Every structure is written in structure tokens, then in C-alpha cells.
Amino acid sequence: SEVKKIAVIAGDGIGPEVVGEAIKVLKKTEELFGYKFELEHGLFGGIAIDEKGTPLPQETLDICKNADAVLLGAVGGPKWDNNSKELRPETGLLGIRKALGLFSNIRPAVVFDCLKDASTLKPEVLEGTDLIVVRELTGGIYFGEKFRREGAQGEEAVDTCVYNVTEVERIVRQAFEIAGTRSKRLASVDKANVLETSRLWRETVNRIAPEYPDIELEHVLVDNCAMQLLRRPSSFDVIVTENMFGDILSDEAAMLTGSIGMLSSASLGEGSFGLYEPVHGSAPDIAGQGIANPIATVLSVALMFKLTFGYQEAGDVIERAVKQVLDAGHRTGDIAVDKSKAIGTTAMGDLIVAAM
Amino acid sequence: SEVKKIAVIAGDGIGPEVVGEAIKVLKKTEELFGYKFELEHGLFGGIAIDEKGTPLPQETLDICKNADAVLLGAVGGPKWDNNSKELRPETGLLGIRKALGLFSNIRPAVVFDCLKDASTLKPEVLEGTDLIVVRELTGGIYFGEKFRREGAQGEEAVDTCVYNVTEVERIVRQAFEIAGTRSKRLASVDKANVLETSRLWRETVNRIAPEYPDIELEHVLVDNCAMQLLRRPSSFDVIVTENMFGDILSDEAAMLTGSIGMLSSASLGEGSFGLYEPVHGSAPDIAGQGIANPIATVLSVALMFKLTFGYQEAGDVIERAVKQVLDAGHRTGDIAVDKSKAIGTTAMGDLIVAAM
Ligand SMILES: CC(C)[C@H](C(=O)O)[C@@H](O)C(=O)O
Ligand SMILES: CC(C)[C@H](C(=O)O)[C@@H](O)C(=O)O
């Protein structure tokens, strides 16, 4: 079949380790399904700051733009936390989202059987929780004008939150589409009782809703959503919201599943291009020890197969292999009940590949 | 003793019912401690829209300004949800905060023994949770300029988030002071890796911190805080944050205790003046049925005694009376395990008064 180009950005901390295992899984699908992948590696985040003096080198951006999809490990770490804005890994993250037009962040929050007890929520509350947060990723207060100025009361800082109808429409449509492939329920989250951008958001959602008559729509205020996620997580199917609210709510949703170390995510633009990464961070405290859990990154490959390449079957094979390895009782340290029996990053990757 | 003036704003839904019981408690303290309270009632919220054509009539504002403290029931309801902005209860709420200079919202999140099991969190996770969210209440994106404009991509909406150093200083100082009376731990929540207002916030916190060398300070990013509240709620003591983040996090924190129907709150300005209200809403679905739980409002009176009047002992008496009634097994419907044994609003108020 056709050669697919994947930009591989290992990043910082445990990034290179978990990405290494995901690549083994990729290679295995070449063998099993006859796919051809061309991998191009790029520097990004802290390591790019160290080696190139910028978190997002032009060269890396070019590799990404030239690829069909991007696989990202993780970026950041205490080493760069006190850098000036231009020399921080997060700045690279915001830059790559904007430069690649990744306006939609898809964050599934599901409960893994083997991690049922890892949640701080009661099992009966969590039962059946399987939701997706669709977060707008290139607009809002993240990208609006920011500045300092001298005011009557001393120095002032300003952030601007801007949304135009087109930006809202495209993310909302995508969320309706996703809901259509699932339980057909969409919760649109805003703060329409206070914010003008939220009022535009809600109007737009209401205008588009009739195009999707089979989707049950509810509007939820962001403060109420933060509560209802705790109260009735299993009642949500797809949640769509703007950038800042999505940042907060997608992390809350991920944490309540107890499975945060296992969750994958996709950032999508127009067309099939996408950037895939685990939800967990760079975990500098355990980096380089060979003990990180590669599953979230492996599952990000499965998501890439399904959403970007349309390799549904191979995606299923990867997901089933992960499940099989977990069902057989294999665990990395982060998810092991008996830590003394925990296996390392490479061992976990090998087991998944073997199970494929 | 000196006469204290209290502005009483019953508001909408169950507001009048729960405020009625709180007034009985107030009166009882006149008898027990020789206090003198002068109550002046004002229209506010939906009922003010209906009767005066505005959610916050000047007359009500004058009553509040002329008082030592304000007791608020609850405002809002579906009846006014589709009104234009100027005719919505929330607009009154934002207006009263600004007009009275209530820059600080104090939201304790504690677990009531009798409600331990009402939380969706596991009891062992919740164990020992007793935190206060200090939310900035008159700045940020709530009060910055908001408008629509025609952009290249169609209609645009804009919200502006502004903070000046003085605004940040006063709320942060107050949070340090509160932490000093408690477990001496302060978590300052921001999004300093993205927002300019958050960078100003963090700089200001760091500049003030040396004045409070006995307080252990941590900076927590808002997305991480939404997670850590779920992960380790009992590790927090005082959380201080800006308006929008505080709206979301204080509701999340309240809900995780399972005690949201029992929680009181204070909104404070300069000096001892304050507005006190239950955290729960106007609950239009059960309004007028005499079944609402008055405890959060009664406890708001206790908070008023302590924070505004310096009536520490009387505040303790109220809190102990509530505890005693609960320990004796009395419950309103919302907190009753056996709903058939639930008592009504008045009965609960009477029992608390009797226990004082
Ligand atoms: C690192 C930070 C800028 C980023 C964000 O807020 O978008 C992160 O929290 C995320 O959710 O990917
Ligand atoms: C009603 C709304 C404007 C208000 C707010 O967002 O401040 C409410 O959610 C609150 O927290 O008191």
C-alpha cells in the first residue's frame, strides 16, 4: 500500500522511551498488514531549546507539514520551567498547534478494566463512563492578544479571548459528527451567562443543531459541568467546549477515570492530518529508567490509524493486543498493584507486539 | 450591644424559605446574647425583574450599602433564563458584587459527617478534606470589556481579561492571612504558562510570599488543580485564584465533598462588610413546597457572625446546634437516607433554634 509519512517527535522526559515502543508497534503493522511507514524524527520542546535554541525549530515544523500525521511523546520538564516565554516547551506546543492548524483536540476519557480501582471515584459512579472531550485548540484566550500596560492602579496585564463564528462552527460540527458515531448525546459547555464569546458559541451551536436532529443536545455551564463530571460521569457522551474550558475539563475528566496514564489523544485540523500523543506528561522523575508505561502512546498509534489513515482493522488489532496483555496480568509500575512484579517499558512494548 | 443592620435578600426559588429559617436563628441569638439586629428586606434577582423591571433595583443596592452585612438566599430560575442580558438575575449578581466592592469570595469545602457517603469520591480519599477556595470576584474576564465585531472570518465575539497588581495583591494577601489561621498551606492557581494575567498573578504572589514566611506556598496550574482536587483533596488547605478559575474550581471542590447542599459562602470587600449566601442555587423544582434544606443558609449566618461581626461564640453556638440536630438523626429530604422520615424546612429551622 501507499507510503505514509509520520513525523516522530519524541520530546522530553519519558517521551523517547514511550515513543520507542510505539514505533515497534508501527513496524509490526508493516509486517502484518503490508503498510509502509516513513518516519522522520524532529526535535521539539525542551530538547530543541537545548540543541537549537527554540522549542519549535523550523526544520521540525517542516517535517510535520510534510507528513501525513505526527506522533508526539511528551514535552517539558523543570529544567525549562523558569525560562522566558520564547524559550519554554509550552510555547512550542502552542506554536505547533497553530502552525499546523490543529483546531480540534479529541480526548477520550475511558475507564480501563484493570484500573477500575485506581480512580478516586466510587466504582458504581464510574460504571459505564466512556466520554470524549472535544476541545477547541487554536482560538480563545490562548491565542488572543496579551500584553502589559500601566493603569491607574499600577501595572495591568491583559489577555483577550476571541472567537469568530467560523472557528466555532467547525469545531461544533466536528463534535456533532463524533456524537453521531457514538451514543448521540452532545453537551456543549460554555459560560453564556457571563461571556460574550460563550454567547456566540451557544448561538452557533443552536443554529447548527437542527442539521443533526438525531443528536440530543444539552447546554451546560462550565462551573456546572465541573460538578456534573463528578456527579454523573457516565451520563456524558461527547462534550464540546472552547480552548480554556477544554483544558480544565478534559484533565478533570481524564483524572476521574483513574486511567490517565493510559489515555491517548488526537489533535486534528482540516482533512485527515492529525497529531497524536499520550495525555500524560513527560514525567521527568522517572525518565531514562526504562519503567515508563508505553500504553498511552501505543494507543495513540491506534487512534492515528483510525482517524488519519482509515486503518480501522489495524487500530483494532493494536487495541486488542493491549487489552490481551493487560488481561494476562502484565503491568508497568504505574499500574501494578504488586510493584515488585512490575515490568519495564521495553518488556511491555514487546508483549504488545507479540500479542498482535 | 450595638445594633447591627442586615440587608436581607430572599431572592428566588427556595430563597425565601431558607432565609426565613436563618432569620429565626438570628432572632434566637438576640435572645441568647442580647444582640440587636435591624433587618431590611430588598428585592433582587428574578423577583426584582418581575416587580421592578431590573434584577438589582437602586433601592436594594442602597439597603445593602447602608447595612453591615447582607444575607442572600438564592437567585435565578428558568423563568428568566431566556431574558436579554440586562434582565437576567445573574446580571444582578455581577452588579451587586461590583457595586459593593466584594472582591473576595470565600468558599469552604468541608465534608459533613452525615453526608460522607453522599460524595461520589471514595471515603478514604475524602478523609480529612477541609479546604477553602478564595476566589477573586470583581476582576478578570467577568468584568473586562466584551463586544462583538465583524472580522475577516465573520462575526467575532471578544472578552477581555484584565488584572492589575493592586487587585491581585489584596486577594492574595487575604488568602495568605486566612491560610495563617488554618493549616498554613496556600495553593495559588493560575495558567502562567499561557496567560499574561496569570504571569502577573504569579509574580505578585511570589513578591508577597516572603511577608508570610510561615505559609507553605505552591503554584498549581489550573488544569492540574482540577485533577489534584480529585486526586488528593485532603492535601489542600487554602486555594487562591482568579475569578473564572475560581468559579470552576470552587464548584468542583464543593461537589466533591458531597455536601453541596450544606455549604455556606462569604463575599467580602474592604473592612468587615460582607455578603453571605448558601452555595446551592434557587432550586426552582422544589420551591414553595416547604422541603428545602435551610442548613447552608443558617451556616451562612454563623459565617457572618464570625467574619463580619466578630461574634465568634454565637457563630460556634449555631454551628454546634446544626451538628447536634444532624447527630440526632434529623434530615431534610435532600440529605435523608430514608426519604419517608424527612422533615421540612420549618421543622429543621425549629430544631436548630431549639438546640441553640
Ligand atoms: C502545556 C499547556 C500549554 C497545554 C495547554 O494548556 O493547552 C497543556 O495543558 C495541554 O492541555 O496540552
Ligand atoms: C451566576 C453566575 C454569574 C455566578 C458566577 O459565575 O460568578 C455563579 O456561577 C457563582 O459562582 O456565583
UniProtKB/TrEMBL annotation, chains A, B:
InterPro entries: IsoCit/isopropylmalate_DH_CS, IsoPropMal-DH-like_dom, Isopropylmalate_DH. GO terms for biological process: L-leucine biosynthetic process. One of its GO terms (molecular function) is NAD binding. Substrate binds at R97, R107, R135, D223. Its main location: cytoplasm. Belongs to the isocitrate and isopropylmalate dehydrogenases family. LeuB type 1 subfamily. This is 3-isopropylmalate dehydrogenase. It comes from Cohnella fermenti.
